């Protein structure tokens, strides 16, 4: 029995399905959850819910949810604890309770579908393919193999997610992404794809990117910068993407304070540097971090800097110093930098 059939068989055993997105879900996670819900409906599950925690702050993510009318509900831990028989719990685009999600460690999972590096995944059904560029690729494969109805909304969601996750097939794309895109293309809504690809940008996001540009420091081909304090968490990956286009730069790491945490976003096409491993090694003792060799992220609770939180300027200075020292040491860089 192949993966699609095994997944479908588990779904036919359930009366309800709860799909938990990772914190601050992106289009790949949202589209995968949306598609899994459609597959569950085809398997006879009438009660389905998609839960998320954190924020949907990136303008593309907000447009994605609004234009596709994806029904999301805020995460509540009671929903996943002490579930009755027949209640299935699924993760898409992440895989471990407590890692980039608010699900308590030790919670029993029924379904995990993911493409991010991870170890120790435990669920009744696991499809974990690190070699793929997007989780949505896996779900598109299931929709096709199970002959689930593919309307324009579902096709558009999956196609946009694959394009966004792979930066229009320039990052991590495999033959599977191209095959999935070919299958989805004729069913997708071209006008809706255009709207999703060109959402408006908030002034706060632009300000955060401008701050990262001003604060940039480089050593060799590595650029490290920060956005200070911002409410726009998704400005960090946008700043990292922009700074990665700077001539002579191969690796970019951007950090900033969002709420009560320090967030990171990293980009690196340099084959000599695995930024997921860099962030994990630098910060796993104080937070959670990791990802792919060319794209990674992380989060550190501000609790470790609690004594400085009464003075924002002092806090920013201390955070910048500590983070930069850790990154410089892990990357083996000289302390001499240039703007």
Automatic annotation (TrEMBL):
Residues 221-302 form the DHHA1 domain. InterPro entries: DDH_dom (IPR001667), DHH_sf (IPR038763), DHHA1_dom (IPR003156), Oligoribo/pAp-PDE_c-di-AMP_PDE (IPR051319). One of its GO terms (molecular function) is nucleic acid binding. It holds the Pfam family DHHA1. Residues 18-162 form the DDH domain. Gene3D superfamilies: 3.10.310.30, inorganic pyrophosphatase (n-terminal core). It comes from the Archaea. This is Bifunctional oligoribonuclease/PAP phosphatase NrnA.
């Amino acid at each position: 029995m192949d993966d699609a059939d095994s997944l479908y068989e588990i779904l036919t055993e359930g009366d309800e399905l709860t799909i938990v997105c990772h914190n601050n879900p992106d289009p790949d996670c949202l589209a995968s959850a949306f598609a899994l819900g459609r597959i569950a409906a085809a398997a006879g599950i009438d009660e389905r819910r998609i839960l998320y925690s954190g924020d949907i702050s990136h303008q593309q993510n907000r447009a994605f949810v609004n234009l596709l009318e994806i029904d999301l509900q805020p995460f509540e831990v009671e929903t996943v604890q002490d579930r009755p028989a027949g209640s299935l719990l699924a993760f898409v685009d992440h895989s471990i309770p407590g890692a980039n999600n608010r699900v308590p460690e030790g919670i029993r999972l029924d379904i995990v579908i993911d493409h991010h590096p991870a170890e120790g995944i435990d669920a009744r059904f696991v499809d974990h393919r690190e070699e793929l560029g997007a989780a949505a690729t896996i779900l598109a494969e299931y929709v096709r193999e199970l002959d689930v109805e593919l309307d324009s909304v579902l096709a558009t969601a999956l196609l946009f997610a694959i394009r966004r996750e792979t930066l229009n097939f320039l990052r991590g794309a495999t033959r599977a992404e191209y095959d999935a895109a070919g299958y989805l293309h004729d069913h997708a809504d071209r006008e809706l794809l255009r709207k999703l690809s060109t959402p408006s940008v908030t002034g706060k996001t632009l300000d955060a990117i401008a701050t990262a540009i001003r604060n940039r420091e480089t050593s060799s081909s590595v650029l490290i910068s920060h956005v200070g304090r911002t409410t726009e968490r998704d400005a960090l990956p946008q700043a990292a993407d922009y700074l990665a286009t700077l001539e002579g730069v191969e690796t970019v790491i951007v950090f900033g304070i969002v709420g009560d945490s320090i967030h990171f976003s990293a980009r690196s096409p340099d084959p000599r540097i695995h930024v997921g491993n860099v962030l994990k090694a630098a910060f796993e003792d104080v937070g959670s971090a990791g990802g792919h060799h060319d794209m990674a992220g992380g989060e550190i609770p501000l609790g470790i800097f609690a004594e400085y939180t009464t003075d924002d300027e002092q806090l920013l200075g201390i955070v910048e110093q500590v983070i930069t020292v850790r990154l410089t040491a892990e990357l083996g860089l000289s302390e001499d930098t240039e703007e």
